[in-house]
Design goal:
Pfam families: Multi_Drug_Res (PF00893)
Number of domains: 1
Family: Belongs to the drug/metabolite transporter (DMT) superfamily. Small multidrug resistance (SMR) (TC 2.A.7.1) family.
Helix content: over 70%
Strand content: under 5%
Keywords: Cell membrane, Membrane, Transmembrane, Transmembrane helix, Transport
GO molecular function, one term: transmembrane transporter activity
Structural class: mainly alpha
Transmembrane segments: 29-47, 59-79, 85-103
């Protein structure tokens, strides 16, 4: 169950970051509220995951899911232009996340 919490926490990190952008500097109340709710869910699930998973494992995986997820959301929803070399580094992030899981 800890891994489920960790994956949900990472997904919600991506969600709250997306809503934060849509809040336009917290000037749009609806997206500001959604940002805060997303943060609460993300941190709650991270806390539940770290109750049994080592912090040295859970935290980098959580941030990695959020980082990779926000790059993908930025490209798909906001039309962010990402350099091909950047995709190499996103791939390295994915390899790092898997590597941390495999070697733990």
């Amino acid at each position: 169950m800890s891994w489920t919490y960790l994956i949900i926490a990472g997904i919600f990190e991506t969600i709250w970051a997306t809503f934060m952008k849509l809040s336009h500097g917290f000037t749009n109340l609806n997206y500001t509220i959604l940002t805060i709710v997303g943060m609460i869910v993300s941190f709650y699930c991270l806390a539940k995951a770290t109750a049994t998973l080592p912090l040295s494992l859970a935290y980098p995986i959580w941030t990695g899911i959020g980082a990779v997820g926000t790059v993908i959301i930025g490209v798909i929803l906001f039309g962010d232009k990402v350099n091909p070399l950047t995709w190499v580094f996103v791939g390295l992030l994915l390899i790092g996340i898997v590597g941390i899981k495999v070697t733990s």
